[in-house]
């Protein structure tokens, strides 16, 4: 993967502009700085390797050289949607785009709400959405995506809190080129984006949820956690769980770690 191969693969997609790096700290950091400057809608930062890739709450996201997709898309949101809903729906939009691309290769993706894509119950991709504000206005949304394509992108088990896999491992054969998988994700993202304010997006996202109808534990910041049956999504993309007292509990998008109960 290099700047030329990317430009060639992406030539049919209407992107803002592209910045490619052989190695970078974090594509989201570069995208946030570019977004605070003059980046156009759908500009993309992509790197072959990240040395300081981030998950939520500054957890580390591993992107070893030559093996994974790591990129950040810059969105200039329209003023049409409430900001909180727009953010959580953008996470769903991104997750669905990765899931759709996995489907294309005959894989069976599931979305571990809110931000991870699982294959065979193992994490294959993660999404990190961050924002740039100017006063009370949301100026830009940066959607970072990391996808384990080749098996060498999967971190060693001892650094993980949740099992991980790659497209190559799950296909059991040579995976698509990274440029090809990126093109699939971006095409899906651009078409799903048309539906960001609709029930269609929420329904498709809900259909794709991992652990639906199963017992889960949602650990929200600090010590609190909710245990119960995963029911589905609210219209803003929040998660609905039925707790032990048979009450519906809404888990808002934020720092939540979802796990199946044993
Ligand atoms: P979670 O949603 O599981 O709480 P995050 O979305 O914040 O986690 O992602 C960061 C976590 O993902 C890290 O703490 C690490 O355990 C795991 N991780 C890091 N790199 C990878 C990778 N390439 N593939 C799968 N999992 C990873």
Q: CATH class of the largest domain, please? A: Alpha Beta
How many domains make up the coordinates? 2
State the CATH superfamily name of the largest domain. Answer: Bira Bifunctional Protein, Domain 2
Bound molecules: adenosine-5'-diphosphate
Rg calculated over all Cα atoms = 18 Å
**Whole-Å distance between the termini?**
41 Å
Biggest pleated sheet: 7 strands, mixed
Mean pLDDT, to the nearest integer, reads 93
Specify the number of helices. Answer: 6
The shape is: globular
CATH architecture classification of the largest domain? 2-Layer Sandwich
Relative strand content: 25-35%
Q: Stretches where pLDDT falls below 50 for ≥5 residues?
A: none
Order of helices and strands: HEHEEHEEEEHHHEEEEE
Strand order of the largest sheet: 1-2-3-7-6-5-4
What is the tally of beta strands?
A: 12
Helix and strand arrangement:
Layout: H1 3-9, E1 18-24, H2 27-36, E2 43-50, E3 68-75, H3 83-104, E4 109-112, E5 116-119, E6 122-134, E7 137-148, H4 167-171, H5 178-193, H6 199-207, E8 215-220, E9 225-233, E10 239-243, E11 248-251, E12 256-260
Parallel strand pairs: 1-2
Antiparallel strand pairs: 2-3, 3-7, 4-5, 5-6, 6-7, 8-9, 8-12, 9-10, 10-11
The structure holds adenosine-5'-diphosphate (ADP).
Key descriptive features of the protein:
single chain, 262 residues, alpha+beta, SH3 type barrels, 2 domains, seven-stranded mixed beta sheet, 6 helices, globular, binds adenosine-5'-diphosphate
Describe the 3D structure.
With 262 residues, the chain is of the alpha+beta class. The chain folds into two domains: 205 residues, Bira Bifunctional Protein, Domain 2 (BirA Bifunctional Protein, domain 2), CATH 3.30.930; 46 residues, SH3 type barrels (Roll). Helix content is 26%, strand content 32%. The strands form two sheets. It has a seven-stranded mixed sheet with strand order 1-2-3-7-6-5-4, sandwiched between helices. It has a five-stranded antiparallel sheet with strand order 11-10-9-8-12. It starts with a helix and ends with a strand. 40% of the residues are buried. Adenosine-5'-diphosphate binds next to β6 and β7.
């Amino acid at each position: 993967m290099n700047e030329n191969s990317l430009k060639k693969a992406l030539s049919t997609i209407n992107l803002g502009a592209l910045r490619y790096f052989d190695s970078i700290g974090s594509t989201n950091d570069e995208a946030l700085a570019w977004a605070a400057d003059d980046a156009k809608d759908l500009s993309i930062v992509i790197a072959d390797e990240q040395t300081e890739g981030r998950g939520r709450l500054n957890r580390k996201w591993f992107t070893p050289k030559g093996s994974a997709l790591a990129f950040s898309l810059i969105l200039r949101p329209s003023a049409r949607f409430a900001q909180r809903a727009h953010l959580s729906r953008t996470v769903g939009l991104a997750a669905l785009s990765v899931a759709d691309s996995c489907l294309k290769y005959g894989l069976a993706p599931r979305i571990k709400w809110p931000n991870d894509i699982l294959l065979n119950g193992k994490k294959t991709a993660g999404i990190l959405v961050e924002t740039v504000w100017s006063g009370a206005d949301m100026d830009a949304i940066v959607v970072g995506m990391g996808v384990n394509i080749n098996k060498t992108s999967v971190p060693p088990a001892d650094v993980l809190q949740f099992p991980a896999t790659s497209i190559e491992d799950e296909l059991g054969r040579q995976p698509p080129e990274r440029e090809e998988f990126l093109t699939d994700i971006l095409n899906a993202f651009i078409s799903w984006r048309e539906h960001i304010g609709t029930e269609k997006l929420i329904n498709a996202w809900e259909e794709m949820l991992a652990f639906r109808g199963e017992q889960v534990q949602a650990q929200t910041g600090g010590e609190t956690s909710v245990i119960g049956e995963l029911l589905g999504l609210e219209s803003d993309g929040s998660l609905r769980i039925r707790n032990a007292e048979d009450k519906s509990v809404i888990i808002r998008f934020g720092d939540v770690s979802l796990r199946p109960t044993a």
